[in-house]
Specification:
Elements: E1 4-17, E2 24-30, E3 35-40, E4 50-60, E5 64-74, H1 79-87, H2 93-104, H3 108-114, H4 116-121, H5 128-153, H6 158-168, H7 172-178, H8 191-200, H9 208-223, E6 230-231, H10 232-243, H11 247-251, E7 260-262, E8 266-268, H12 270-288, H13 311-322, E9 325-330, H14 336-349, E10 354-358, H15 361-371, E11 375-377, H16 378-381, E12 384-385, E13 389-390, E14 403-406, H17 414-422, E15 429-434, H18 447-454, E16 459-462, H19 467-470, H20 473-482, E17 499-504, H21 507-526, E18 534-537, H22 547-558, E19 575-578, E20 592-599, E21 604-609, E22 614-618, E23 625-627, E24 630-631, E25 641-648, H23 658-665, E26 668-677, H24 680-685, H25 697-701
Parallel strand pairs: 3-5, 9-15, 9-16, 10-11, 10-14, 14-15, 17-26, 18-24, 18-25, 25-26
Antiparallel strand pairs: 1-2, 1-4, 2-3, 4-5, 6-8, 7-8, 12-13, 19-20, 19-23, 20-21, 21-22
Helix pairs in contact: 1-2, 5-6, 9-10, 12-17, 13-14, 20-23, 21-22
Amino acid sequence: MPDSDSLAAEIVAVRWRADDGGFAVLAAVADDGAELTLTGPIAHLHEGDSVEVEGAWREHPKFGRQLHVEQVRVGAPTSGALLTLLETIKHVGPKGAEWLVARHGDEVLEIVDRDPGTRLREVPGIGKAKLKAAVASWQQQAGGRALRMLLAEHDVPAAVAARVHKALGGGALALLEQDPYALSKIDGIAFATADAVARALGTPADAPERIHAALHHTLRASEQDGHCFLPRSELLPRAARLLELPIDVVAAQLDDAELVLDGSERVLEPRMDRTEHRLADRVRDLAGAPPTLDVDVPADPPTDGDFPPTATQWAAVHAAAEHRLSILTGLPGTGKTATMRALVDLLRDVKRTVRLCAPTGKAAKRLAEATGAEATTIHRLLEWVPGEGFARDADDPLTGVELLVVDEASMLDVRLAAALLEAVGPRTHVLLVGDVDQLAPVGPGRVLEDLIASDVVPATKLTEVFRQAARSLIIRAAHAIDRGEAPPTKAGDDDIRDFFYIERPSAQHVFAEVISLATRRLPKHYDLDPVQDLQVLVPMHKGPAGIDAFNDTLRAELNPDGRGVKGTPFRLGDRIMQTRNNHERSFYNGEIGVIVANDPGRGTITLVGDDGRRLTLDLNETSTLRLAYACSVHKMQGSQAPAIVIALARGHAPMLTRNLVYTAVTRAQSTCVVVAETGALPTALSRVDASRRNTRLVELVS
């Protein structure tokens, strides 16, 4: 792990600065005279600035030791720093900066701040035509400078401060003075940070706006656990603990907090209330609408071909043709893909337009390969526009599509499901395909399961395991785990031995076994690329057999000589994962890639995704990336890899459920190995997904 440090220094040179004012590489001199390099979200610093920084030392293979800054406090600028800072103001330039310092001395910033229009008008060369732009430039810089100083006083990390400034703009400080809890609405900023700033600005502990912000935050935080609402009896104690106030004080503000009170108990954020209602209304509309797909489907399934459809599979084809909205579900090996292929072939023969989509790029690619039809991600299908949302919606729906097939529908949360169904055109049928026994979606709700439970949407469940699939121990293991039984480990003469179970006495032994399998034994035996073709899945991040520990060791083994990417913790050749949606790049939460190029001059890295797509990111977009030699099962939903190695330890007990292990095993395409500490697998098999989700979709649809 990199060692942390804090020190005082003076900035002596800017070696590189991102155009957006985020990431920078700076040369500095510490108080003891040592020369050092600072990197991180510090592009707001200038030559001559006196700073106190905290961060972690990293060894760059080319540029040597660097301090990656996580916290920064800026002292009073020196004369050199003042000149550098003033030169950046539009129309001031070097001569104007010298004039301002000569005229006003070290207090120039405070003097100009009091009346920028008058003071800048006095600068030689700034006439009436240039004054407006100069004042706007000054106010933007002054606001950002004051904002960063305020946030630094409350130990807000430099990266977060940069995001705040980017999100709120030059008027951020004025906005925070009017609404100090605007910070809590910015992605990635905890309520505690917004609260500390608000309290520093004078907000009382029992101020209504503070309590309202905490109630909203508590509901938003519960969405991360999959909830669409919280009962009053859960919401109030959670918010009270957050605020360190009595429950009755918080309860007194509930009616005025601009929340939706559904009955006597349920409390929702207004946006979530509207989303659930929109989704339910659209489901009812589609379920009750007459069919528009004018196709004569034969009563009996065809009997030709290598794998003719069964009667149940053909019933799903009929349902898709006869209903505007239908569902197909089933465990692995029961023929969901074969059913989709039969449906696509039938419609293609009669010249009907079919579109296929899935939540992730890799799932879409796999769907296209399996059906022989074009498939895309849902975001691309709905034409996501950064900063605006989906271009396709109720006002501009998908046209020219007679059947839309949505695979991996168990991953749909209420927001994505509502957006997707609202964009369905007036003559489009929709088939949702998924497996409700997998993990619930990362976002709020459990749409596929709720729609099946409603009995409003016709659903076909496939149960017969085909002979070829039944030969696979992966398929048989998945079915056994789904029933709560130990997976089979012995193979018959005709079986495909693609699943292995290894038990070890401790988490440390599990760790060592997984490292050996992932770095040497499996790649050698199966001729795999250990970075591209193999994925280690782990339930939790921390601990001796956690994701973080695995990533550190796997990278040391698999990419020891990768050249470091300046300003990031990554190396060329690293396997990385996106942890938040980057809509501008169409690079979404859970997608994986390998870093194949770095351009320091442009400040970019290039990735090749698991779906084969080549993607270039700016360095300031890498803060949401994480190493992905090992990752969580949740992050792997919707994706697969040729080889999967699953690590299970007793320390993972809070996450060990039947659904988690089932989902992990079904991520394997060719080979799956489960390495478990003694007792860990029985614990998981004894527990179905224990997380209760508060949703209203069943009752709203019914």
